[in-house]
Each structure stands twice: as C-alpha cells, then as structure tokens.
From TrEMBL, chains A, B:
<dbReference type="InterPro" id="IPR016215">
    <property type="entry name" value="NTA_MOA"/>
</dbReference>
<keyword id="KW-0503">Monooxygenase</keyword>
<keyword id="KW-0285">Flavoprotein</keyword>
<dbReference type="InterPro" id="IPR011251">
    <property type="entry name" value="Luciferase-like_dom"/>
</dbReference>
<comment type="similarity">
    <text>Belongs to the NtaA/SnaA/DszA monooxygenase family.</text>
</comment>
<dbReference type="Pfam" id="PF00296">
    <property type="entry name" value="Bac_luciferase"/>
</dbReference>
<protein>
    <submittedName>
        <fullName>LLM class flavin-dependent oxidoreductase</fullName>
    </submittedName>
</protein>
<keyword id="KW-0288">FMN</keyword>
<dbReference type="InterPro" id="IPR051260">
    <property type="entry name" value="Diverse_substr_monoxygenases"/>
</dbReference>
<keyword id="KW-0560">Oxidoreductase</keyword>
<feature type="domain" description="Luciferase-like">
    <location>
        <begin position="30"/>
        <end position="384"/>
    </location>
</feature>
<dbReference type="InterPro" id="IPR036661">
    <property type="entry name" value="Luciferase-like_sf"/>
</dbReference>
Length: 447, 447
C-alpha cells in the first residue's frame, strides 16, 4: 500500500477522446479537435473534480496517422498556456522530447508556462524513437535506444541546472535603488558535457514551485532507470493488478537505490474508463466505440507500434511471429505489452486492434461509477498505484462522467481531496520543495 | 506617399514599458512584469484601439541586463497564447531566432499559436548576433553576420514549405467515412539543403490565414535584402523624416527588385510617444523618466550595442572613437545609428544614454495627442511609413494614452480604421491570401 492515505489523479487529454474512433462517435463533436475553447473547457472540468493535473502528449511527425487520426494539432505548451489562464488550480503537464530540442529553449518554454500558471507546469520527458520524427530533424533511420537515453540524461541534468540558475529571491524589483535582480543570486551554470555546452543563466527567474514537475512514461529497462533517477510522477500502461504491483515494487526499489525516498516518485497507471449506470450499459458503450474503429488506420498504428509492417496482413488471422525484444529500437515496453497479449496465439489481429483501440495498450475498464471507484481503490490499496492517469475515451463527456460520478465516490471514501490544499503542481502531488544547488554560492562572474 | 489611404499600427510591448527606467517610475507597477494578467490587459487595450497587432521581442540570454533590467521573463509565444484567448481581433507577433532553433519546431510553435488565435499569429524573424546567446547553445564567440543570414534564408524557405504542407481543405473530419484528413492534400516537403534536411509534412494543419505573417527588423544590408525577399512588415528605427524616407524608398525598391509588389511589405518605423495635455508637460514627463536612468546599466547596454567596452568610460566625456562598421558582427544598423548620433563629438556619453533610454535608438517624441497624430500623418503622407511601431515608454498607461487620445484623432482624420474589417492578422495588414505551392500536387507517398 502507498504511504499516502489519498491518491492522485491526472487527466490525460487527447483531441475528443483517447479511443481512436472517438471523433466518429455521436458522443463527440469532431470539429472541436481544432477548438482551443474545447481544451480550456476540459481544464475547467478537471479543476471542478479537484484533479492534480491535465496532460497532453506530443509527437514530432504526422506518422501513419494522417488519414484517420485527429491528434497533434496544437503544440502542447502553447495549448496549456491558453488553459492556464482559464483555470486557477489544476496542474498542466506537456510532453517534450529531449531528442530534438535544446535544453536552453526547453527550460525557457516550461519556465514560461510555470510563470504564466503561477507554478503549475510539468514536463513529461520523452525521447523520440520514430524514424518519422528523425526525418524531420535531419537524422536518418531510427535513433538507437541507448543513445537516446544518454542524451536524455545530460539534457535533464543541464535543464535542472538552468532551472536553478536563479535563486529564490533573486528578483529584487526595488524601484528606489534601481535594482531589478541581485546578480549574486543569478548564476552561470558553465556546463561542458559530451553533447551540450551551455553557459547560462536562464533568461527567466525561478518559478513559484521552484521548477516544473518531472514526469516520465518509459517502462523499458533504460526508461525505468531514468524514471527512478529523475521522475516525480510516472505514467505507465499496466493491464492487470499483478503486473501493476510488480511494476510498482520494481520502480520504487529502483528509486530507493538511487538514494531517493520511495514517496518522491508517484506511480500512475493509465485507465480508460467507460462509465454508465449499469455494467451492461458500460460494456455496450465501449462496444459502440469499438465498432467504429477503422481497420486500415489501426493496422498502420499497430505496425508503427511494433515496427513490423502489418498493413497487408489479414485482420482475421493471428498476429505473425514478432522479432525478439532486443531488436526493437522504438517503444520497447509497448512492444512487450502487445507481444504478451498475443502470446497464446488465440487473438486475431482484429481482436487485438479492438483491445488496443481504447488506449493504445492502456487498460480499459467498463463499469458503473462504483465499479470504477472500486477498481482504483483496489489498485491503490494493493500496492499497484499512487494514483491514476485517467484517459477518457471520449471528450468532454467521458471526463465529465469521471469527475461528476466517480470522483464524489472517491471523496466519500476519503481517497481523494475535496478541495485543493496546495497552490502548485508539486504541491498537489505532495512533493517537497526543490533545493537549489546554487543557493548561497558566490561566483566570480556575478560578484 | 503610401498606396493605402490608411496606415497600420503595431504596439511593441515590453515589460512595464520601453523606457529603460520605466519600472522605477511612479506611473508603473514594477511587479507586473511577472504578471500574465498585465500582458492580457495590454492586448485588450490594443484591441480597444483597433490596432493591427501587438509584438513581443525576445533574446536567448540574460546578457548584461540582470541587475537593472526587467525584460525577458516570458517566452513570447507562450505569452501570446495567453493573450490570444483574452482577445478576439488583435494580431499577435513574436520574435524567434533562426540561429538556435529547428524549422520543424518553430513552424509548429507558430502554427499552434495561429490555430489558438484563429489566424492572428506573426513571426518576427531574427538572427542571433550576441556571444551571450551563442554560449547558451554550444557556440563559441560571435557568429559571423553573413553565415547567420545564409542560415536564416534556408530556415525561412523550409518553414514556408512546412506551412504549405497541408493544403486548405485537407482536414475533412468526416465521421461517416472515418476520414480525418485527405492524404492527397497533405504533402512531404523533402527538403535537403546545406543546413537542414526535413521530410515533413508538418504535424499541424494549415491555419485560418494560410500561414503566420512574416516580420523582420534588420536594417543592415543583409537585413534589408532579407526583408525585401521575405518580410510582409518591417520594424525599423528611423530618427528623422529624411532618414525614414530614404529607408522607405530603398526598401520598397528592393521589394520590387525581388519581383514583389511594393505594397506587399509594410514599413513601420518605431516611435516612443510621451503624451500629455501640453508639449511642456510631455517633455517634463519624458525628463522624469530620463532622470531615473541608471548609468551603470546604460553603460553596459551601450557597450553591448556597440561591441565596445564603455563600462570604465567617463559619463561626461564624449564617446571614444568607434571601430569601422565592417568590423561589427552584431547589430550593424543600430551601431551605425549610434555612430551617427555621436558623429560631431558634441554629445557626452551621459547625453547619449538619455537619448537612447526611451527606445534603444528608436525615435522618442514628446507632445500633445494632436502633435503625435500630426507627426504620424506627416511620416505617412511624406513617404516614410506605411504605419508605425508604437513603443509606449510606460505600460499600461502609455498605451492607454495612445489608444484613447491619439487613435481617435487618427480615426477622425480618416487615417486609421474605426472597426476591424478583417479577421486575420494578414487581413489587418491588407495582405493578399497566400498561395500554397503544393495545391493540386499529387505525390506518390500519399497517393
């Protein structure tokens, strides 16, 4: 069981819903994928439910998704900035890749969101695995898995240093003396590493929460080590309670091995909830989405996920044999998950696509509000979760239902906050203040 | 005289005002430099005045400004996103550098702002000249002037191609057939140049105005050629009507030489207006700001501007001899402007600092609302401007005064719009729709 008595909730938002056919379903209005007001509304709904945060994923290529998929229209930090000014409490997490950006630019972008939101920004750290993304940044083929993580580590180290480059209290703003900032509290970082040389300081002061929350979602061996070292929240796809418990134990042990407290990292498994008055209605609702899946799109999506071309494969035959894990340079954990699902050879490709349609490998759950609450409570109390990554299959309705029907039950059971008690995203997740490595350091340049 | 009967107005916004001592003056509240609501208010004031656009500059280093200067807290595109959702009409222009970013990332960021604002985004294209900025991106010393512009040209070419990679109408959004986008209208760009290799397409559809407005502010020889080729609006520092006319004639001739219409580029000289009921009061107001200048800060600022260390120089002696223009790798036009001001040797450094304090080389003008309006009308009618870059010395008051006291006079004289007649930023500036190079092209990959 978690150390905490209450758990955490993040709303993972995507277009008009996570289900890949969401935009075709009568419960959504497809055109809202292009409407910033839709996303502001989602932020306000999450805030009505006292959720810790909302989250937008991102990618740096269109990939195989052009024809049938609605994602990736807004760059998430610019989108979250528009949501920040329409909300007051909810945290704002965005994916950004360490593979194709500069630490100075990324640090600045997230600090800017952190200032705009008064300390509610979070960074989901990803490395970019795809050949499609590489081709938009002058790189041929698929970048090697290990090199991506080596770059990511140096990238995060230097980004953290930039976020420390202004101490708390560096901004003096004294009109009388004409002093804007105390140069003794603004530091160069003088980083000189294998991939980055950066002098600093960052051109923006420290934010209200010290620095943005660090989030991570890789579940490969390198991904888990990376998370254990840096992450404060982890999004993960776990399909059974046992798998969730094993992942939770494993990751917490790694966190402790890295000299951190187990509670310094919150494990948030994903769940795609279909909610209705009865279990039967919930399952029928899920089926109504599955029925709208476009096999052509799904085969391309699955091919990309596995790194195996399935676009000519029969929908009604089992999955062909897959290459061994160590040949995979892309998303290893998602690859393993699909391989496990298809292991006994009983699933046709069509059935597999149906299973993956809700949340691309994340667990779907169809039930009553009580059943959803029970499921979350069980995972939390049985040591599989510090909270959950809620992935509404359709939006805004699926988020409305979770907030208005499931959250009150969780609150009645004492499992979730009834009011915000902190003002920052780090505060919502119950994380300690961040020390600043430069606090009190006198460096020559600024003396 | 301009071809148009009305001119254009951009509000160049910076902290609590352009005057370097603005934040020390009783007409401002210094802490608002950190307050996003302040900047949203400025956007709404500009919109109340029916201004074409607001603009935020940017830099990628703290530079010599830490102690006495209040700039560069927010990254401008994230800031404009927050302003976009607080306004309906006014254009939103941000600086971004071609020196230290990737075209794919920059194209996406501005397209995202363009979607969030329904077609009101503009990009002020800059190259980064400073050693301080270079040191934050692994580059030693000051990048050569010519190399910066060569990179900028390829950068803009490929960014324009990315913005064309989705045709108008590519987004189908048909729930019945399950088609989100028409792959025949989404194109790879397959750019393979000396500095960038980018496949495309961009991961965001074409915006309501086709693509963001292109703005430029370099006035060096390379800068003017670059502007003549690409820019649709140019911000420029011109201190006298004659200099303004010469710049205007020169730039328009270059535009025509590049095969464009003279009207395809709008010339917007900067002006820092001190507005009061009488000329005497306006001049006293300006003096009250000059009196608050911190010489220590200004000497560092001037040293950076000139690339000459003046921090040990006496404030009451004339400027020392300056190196020839062709040795300058930084902002050549600003260098020449200061050199011209100091040419006859009669100005002390302190006097020079006072002259530059309002707008860092841009023209300051102190007078009544009628005198400010007269001045703008003269420049417009005498062939020195298609509009103006209004740089309020203090904010929000200085923008309030311009909007509430000068704009009505301009409207009465028929020189400025009384209502918005267009819905996009390109529309406000009277620019034609943008052709799409890929319209109707059938490429194999997507067929």
């Amino acid at each position: 069981m978690s150390q905490d008595s209450q758990f955490h909730l993040n709303a993972f938002l995507m277009g008009v819903g996570h289900h890949e056919a969401a935009w075709r379903h009568p419960r959504t209005e497809a055109h809202r994928v292009l409407d910033v007001a839709h996303f502001q509304e989602l932020g306000r709904i999450a805030e009505r439910g006292k959720l810790d945060s909302v989250f937008f994923a991102d990618g740096l290529a269109v990939g195989p998704r052009i024809k049938h998929n609605t994602q990736a229209i807004f760059e998430p930090v610019t989108l979250l900035s528009a949501i920040a000014v329409a909300t007051e409490h909810v945290g704002l997490i965005a994916t950004a890749s360490t593979s194709y950006s500069d630490p100075y630019t990324l640090a600045r972008k997230f600090t800017s969101l952190d200032h705009i939101s008064s300390g509610r920004a979070g960074w989901n750290i990803v490395t970019s695995a795809g050949a499609d993304e590489a081709a938009n940044f002058g790189v041929d083929g698929i970048p090697a898995h290990s090199g991506r993580y080596e770059r990511a580590e140096e990238f995060v180290d230097v980004t953290l240093a930039l976020w420390d480059s202004w101490e708390d209290g560096a901004v003096v703003l004294d009109p009388e003396t004409g002093v804007f900032a105390d140069p003794g509290k603004v530091h160069t970082i003088d980083h000189d590493g294998p991939r980055f040389r950066i002098k600093g300081p960052l051109n923006s002061p420290r934010s209200a929460q010290g620095r943005p929350l660090l989030v991570q979602a890789g579940s490969s061996e390198s991904g888990k080590e990376f998370a254990a070292r840096y992450a404060e929240a982890v999004f993960t796809a776990q399909r059974t309670l046992e798998q969730g418990q094993e992942f939770y134990r494993d990751l917490k042990a790694r966190v402790v091995k890295h000299g951190r407290n187990a509670g310094d990292l919150k494990v948030l498994p994903g769940i795609v909830p279909f909610i209705a008055d009865t279990e039967e209605e919930a399952k029928a609702l899920e089926q109504s989405f599955t029925d709208l899946i476009s096999p052509e799109y799904s085969l391309r999506q699955l091919s990309t996920m596995l790194g195996v071309d399935l676009t000519k494969h029969s929908l009604d035959a089992p999955l062909p044999p897959l290459p061994p894990l160590d040949e995979i340079q892309g998303n290893k954990s998602r690859y393993q998950l699909v391989k496990d699902l298809a292991a006994d050879g009983s699933l046709t490709v069509r059935q597999l696509i149906g299973l993956l349609g809700g949340g691309r490998g994340h667990r779907t759950f169809a039930g009553t509000p009580e059943q959803v609450a029970d499921e979350l409570q069980t995972w939390f109390e049985q040591g599989a979760a510090d909270g959950f990554n809620i992935m509404p299959p359709y939006l805004p309705g699926g988020l409305d239902d979770f907030v208005d029907r499931v959250v009150p039950i969780l609150q009645q059971r004492g499992l979730f906050r009834t009011e915000y008690t902190a003002t920052t995203l780090r505060g919502h997740y119950g994380l300690a203040d961040v020390d600043n490595r430069f606090a009190g350091v006198v460096d020559e340049a600024s003396a």
